[in-house]
Design goal:
511 residues; alpha+beta; Immunoglobulin-like; 7-stranded mixed β-sheet; 22 strands; 25% strand
Length: 511
């Protein structure tokens, strides 16, 4: 099938997937003790965390995903779920199949990790449960370690509040046909949108703030019903991290023990609804999300968690807490892990996928005041140690990938941002929100004069398309004309600006 036809199937065929004729394998098993269920694949399918020989395959059984009890309409029973992996979309060449069980303790989610797949190739997968067959998903494994890779195309996305707009960003990413989606946090929002009711394009199934496992599960269930988001998950593997709104706005690792039950519920729901490996399965209010991935000899992704281990955010504008060397945004163990990674250079490009703005932002030109405590600004010593870490260990081409701020940015990185002549030591690509509102005014010329390392900003919704080759990284900052318009025929998705980072050359260049 051609890429265009495949994209058409992924965008238009998900809702009708249950109407196809069932293949013979779908009738092979029944679960005698489990009550019959309606079509449980209302949330689609997904894959993620690709390795050279494996990829996570995900689905969640939920005939009624909007039920506020978070149970998705599933009986309190264990269900066998069959799965298949094939090299073709028609499943004439099945390479692996198996059966796994799921129940309410897992939110009836399914995480399959087939091993022994061939590196650097495309696969198709599907599930069966209760006599129903899921939509077909497409995935791919990572190239073998050290393999020569001509190009990697991936998309960055972040911050998708349900009520604030339609998920056209995911429609655009499917059309771009990337090898990978890197999602940098705020997949759901725990609170209803702050927009006036008249400006909300769609409503939540329930308006309560999510604090319990039932409500977190139901909120994910509603997000997963979006057809563009389903198509994006079905089209390509994702690598995901969470930020604050998957738990609570601006939470940190120093929250009181009274919040540990809420964290545990939020982490459990995040795991149940994301294509994550079993190594990420939470233990109460703890979840190991920082990890790294290689894409042959071309790229390495260091996926960071800047929420779970951070010190409490500074308050006010006095710089003492911002500069305190005893405070951290990564935690000591994650920082040691990252610096240890920097000692080896298995790939041309090192991408640091993380949540919050890395470069300094100076709002008033006064060195005695500090700003943006929720970003790396609020943890300047952590930023210095990580930056010096890649400099001292001679990381060849470091690029930081960021979400959170609901605005596109492109910035160069320095050790001393007050010295505008200090050498550039890396660059940062910041993706705007997919839908989440940003009412703030854009930076003016005075702000750019104080922050000359920031090359670009755009306050529109969208995503970033990154094309990586051995010679360069090209970032296309994609913007959506109107997230309040439901009709895709009336919505355009265009590149607002493009920046290039050349191999061996520190700093961004406008393309």
């Amino acid at each position: 099938m051609s890429p265009m036809n495949r994209r058409a199937v992924l965008l238009g065929g998900l809702a009708a997937a249950g109407a196809v004729t069932l293949p013979s394998w779908a009738h092979a098993r029944t679960t005698a003790a489990a009550p019959p269920i309606r079509d449980p694949f209302r949330l689609g399918v997904a894959s993620g965390d690709p390795l050279p020989d494996s990829v996570v395959l995900w689905t969640r059984l939920a005939p009624a995903p909007l039920n506020p009890d978070g149970l998705g309409g599933m009986p309190d029973a264990t269900y066998d779920v069959d799965w298949e992996v094939a090299t073709d979309e028609a499943f004439t060449s099945v390479v692996q199949r198996g059966t796994t069980a799921t129940n309410r303790a897992l939110g009836h989610s399914v995480h399959v990790e087939p091993a022994g797949l061939a590196p650097g190739r495309e696969y198709f997968y599907r599930f069966r449960a209760g006599g129903h067959v899921s939509p077909v998903g497409r995935t791919r494994t990572a190239p073998a370690a050290g393999a020569a890779v001509a190009a990697l195309k991936y998309c960055l996305a972040s911050c998708q509040q349900w009520e604030d707009g339609w998920f056209h960003a995911h429609r655009g990413m499917v059309a771009d046909d990337p090898d990978l989606v890197v999602f940098l946090g705020d997949y759901i929002y725990e609170k209803p949108s702050g927009l006036p009711a008249a400006d909300k394009v769609r409503r939540l199934a329930f308006d309560e703030e999510t604090t319990t496992l039932a409500h977190y599960r139901a909120r994910y269930g509603q997000y997963h019903t979006d057809p563009y988001l389903q198509a994006s998950h079905a089209a390509t593997p994702w690598v995901v991290i969470l930020d604050d709104h998957e738990v609570d706005n601006n939470w940190n690792g120093s929250d009181s023990p009274a919040n540990s039950a809420r964290k545990a519920a939020a982490f459990q729901a995040f795991y149940e609804n994301m294509p994550l490996r079993s190594t990420a399965r939470p233990s109460g209010a703890s979840m190991r999300l920082y990890r790294d991935f290689l894409w042959g000899g071309l790229a390495r992704f260091h996926m960071l968690d800047t929420r779970q281990y951070r010190s409490a955010q500074a308050t006010g504008s006095a710089c003492g807490p911002y500069l305190d060397t005893g405070r951290t945004i990564t935690g000591a163990a994650q920082e040691r892990w990252l610096l240890k990674n920097f000692e080896q250079h298995p790939a041309t490009w090192d991408f640091l996928g993380q949540q919050v703005f890395f470069a300094q932002r100076d709002d008033d030109g006064d060195r005695s005041t500090c700003h943006a405590p929720d970003s790396w600004n609020g943890y300047a010593a952590s930023r210095d140690r990580v930056t010096k870490g890649w400099i001292d260990r001679r990381v060849p081409n470091p690029v930081v990938l960021t979400g959170d701020v609901h605005r596109h940015y492109a910035a160069d990185l320095r050790l001393d941002y007050w010295d505008h002549g200090d050498p550039i030591v890396g660059s940062e690509l910041v993706v705007t929100s997919a839908t989440s509102n940003n009412p703030g005014a854009p930076p003016d010329s005075t702000w750019y004069a104080r922050n000359p390392h920031v090359k670009y900003s755009q306050n529109k919704r969208g995503y970033v398309r990154v094309t990586t080759t051995p010679r360069e990284v090209r970032a296309d900052f994609r913007v959506i004309s109107d997230v309040w318009e439901a009709d895709p025929a009336k919505v355009s998705i265009n590149t607002d600006a493009s920046y290039v980072i050349e191999e061996g050359v520190r700093g961004l260049r406008r393309a």
